[in-house]
Amino acid sequence: MKEKIHAWLDQIEKEVVVPQHIIALNFGLYDTDKGYCVYLVGASEYDESDDSWAEDVENLPREFFLEIEAQSDWKEFQEQVVSILGEELKQRIVNASSPFYNKVITTGFDDGPLTRIM
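The chain above was modelled as a monomer; its predicted structure follows.
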C-alpha cells in the first residue's frame, strides 16, 4: 500500500496546480467492494473545530481516486493511511512547488471525524 500511495502522490505532484484560494486538502476515505478508496479534494476554508469544512469542497483540477484492495477493518486502514501520508508528506511539504506546500492536510472517512496530518 505504501508504494501505491507514494506513486499516486508523485502523479499528483506532477499534474496538479492547486488554485491559490485552496488552503486545505483532505484525503477522503470510503469503503469499496474490494477494500477502500482514497481521494483528494481541496477547500478554501478550514475550521479546526468543525470538520464540516471538508464537506463544502471542490475537486482539484482533476479528480484523483486511488483504490486499494485491503482486508483490514476501517480503523486499521485509516491508521495506516495516516502513517503513510504523514511520512510521505513530511518530505513533500518543504518544496514550494509541491501542491501540498503550506496547506492544512487531513484525512478521514466521509462519515467520520478527520485527522489532521499537517
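The mean pLDDT is 90.
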